[in-house]
Every structure is written in C-alpha cells, then in structure tokens.
C-alpha cells in the first residue's frame, strides 16, 4: 500500500517536513473507514505543506495521518482505537489484519527512506536541521471558544528530544521568530507547552542527534477556522514569511560555527 508523499531535494543541509499535511486515504481502506472527511480534516494539519515551501529540501505528505501517522511509533501509527485518535472511531472493527500488517510494513519502509535522506544530508554537509512543521487546535469545545492564551502559545516549539549541544541554535531560532520583520505583532513562541515533539523528531535525534537538530514547529491554527476549514490567506502567508525569515539565522549560525 503506497504512502504518497513529495520529496524535493536541493543543495542544502536544511529540511522542511510536513508529515500531517495530507488528506488522501488509499482505496483499499475506504470500505472500512468510519471517520468522515470533515472530522479527519479537523485533526490533520492542512496548509502546513504551504508553510514548508522554503528554500530547503522538502518532505510533504499527501497521505493522511488517518491512514498512517509517521509521528507515532509503529504500533500506534494506525488508529485502531478511539483513544489513539481524539476519541474518533476511525475504522470498522473488521479492518483486515493483512491491511494492518501492510500499513505497519509501510511505516518501516518510510523510516528507512527517512534514514537515507538524513544520512545523505550528513554525508554531503556534515550537519542538518529539520523544520518539522505542524499545526494544532486550540478551540476544542466549539468554534466560539475563547482561547486560553497561557496554555496555547501561537507557536509551540517542540525541542525536548534534541541533543543539548543544539541549545544555542534553538535559542537563535526563538530569537529570530521574536525579532521577525514580516509585519506580525510580537509572536508568542514558547517551548514544550502543548507538545514536546513527536516520534519523528525522537527517532531522528535518537539516531543522528550529534549531527543535527529537529525543531517541531506547531502553529496554533490562527491561519484558519479550525471548525469550518476556512483558510485566512494573509495570515498563512505571514507565517510562511516568518519561517523564511528564520532561514537567514540558520546560515549565519553555521557560518559562525565554521569560523570557530
């Protein structure tokens, strides 16, 4: 069963991943699917592929996390129980074991591919940085809920899995966001409030953390109505410009490291 995704490479040590951007479900799974389009879209990260349109290498998912979630460990990567999926019943209980096994094998294959991409980047450049781009819901009760600003930062930066050697780089990223020059008000970016970084970040840093850093960048869905799906294009573009602004910091950081 195919995991549909886009990989675009360029001559850079930097990657933008948007593994929850996708909405597609394989035809073989559709007869067993219970969760409707709107329910799935609410828990996916639409438009993060747009945010990942940076002068980096790119990995953009077309396949939905409701088919296979690369941000979960193998055994939890297929949502077989409601407690794995925000209380949502995703599949009929008669989902064949053979399809489940195929999905788990696809999870293995995708991480072998990710291994190869990271290893190739290290061989070519000696280091890497991954922007692991996500979005999250802050209005769980209804469309009109007032957001708890203390518990829901505008950007939650998941950094918990990184090697401590990257502390200065993380601080430089946070500083670049706060000093952005793209016309946004002061951006509320805080670390590890809602999310620490998922399995993708943990896997990569566990294996290659001496060579690079994964910044799990979770945007609160201020760029869209998280209940209706309506996008606010100007806000979305301002966040994309914000990420573009931080790329200057990356080049400066590693140029300084080379001079040491």
From TrEMBL:
The keyword NAD does not apply. Coiled coil: none annotated. Its EC number is 3.5.1.68. InterPro entries: N-FG_amidohydro (IPR007709). Signal peptide: none annotated. GO terms for molecular function: N-formylglutamate deformylase activity. Keywords: Hydrolase. This is N-formylglutamate amidohydrolase.
